[in-house]
């Protein structure tokens, strides 16, 4: 197990992903954010099956900051119930792990 984590989130559009991503890096809650290309989501919401385009993003952070990062993303998110989860990193290139830990 390493001391870092990836926080995955999806956003309504690229502008929201960029705004929140930049805020998290500037606030020192994430060392980096990768904003990925649009994806198509099919999901159940309030009893109906919905679908739409979303923008996924991967935030790199220290494991001990994952909960704070999740809370900060959720507080700024446009969704009522944003998908924001942490994935623990069990193995990483040592230099990358150090960069994430030291980059915050």
TrEMBL record:
GO terms for biological process: response to metal ion. One of its GO terms (molecular function) is copper ion binding. InterPro entries: Ion_tolerance_CutA, N-reg_PII-like_a/b, N-reg_PII/ATP_PRibTrfase_C. It comes from the Bacteria. Belongs to the CutA family. PANTHER family: DIVALENT CATION TOLERANCE CUTA-RELATED (PTHR23419), FI09726P (PTHR23419:SF8). This is Divalent cation tolerance protein. It comes from Edaphosphingomonas laterariae. The lineage of its organism: Bacteria, Pseudomonadati, Pseudomonadota, Alphaproteobacteria, Sphingomonadales.
């Amino acid at each position: 197990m390493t001391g870092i984590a990836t926080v995955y989130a999806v956003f309504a559009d690229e502008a929201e992903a960029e705004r929140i991503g930049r805020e998290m890096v500037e606030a020192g809650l994430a060392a980096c954010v990768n904003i990925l290309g649009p994806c198509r989501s099919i999901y159940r919401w309030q009893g109906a099956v919905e679908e739409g385009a979303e923008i996924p993003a991967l935030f790199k952070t220290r494991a001990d900051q994952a909960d704070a990062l999740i809370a900060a993303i959720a507080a700024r998110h446009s969704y009522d119930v944003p998908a924001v989860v942490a994935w623990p990193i069990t193995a990483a290139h040592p230099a990358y792990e150090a960069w994430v830990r030291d980059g915050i």
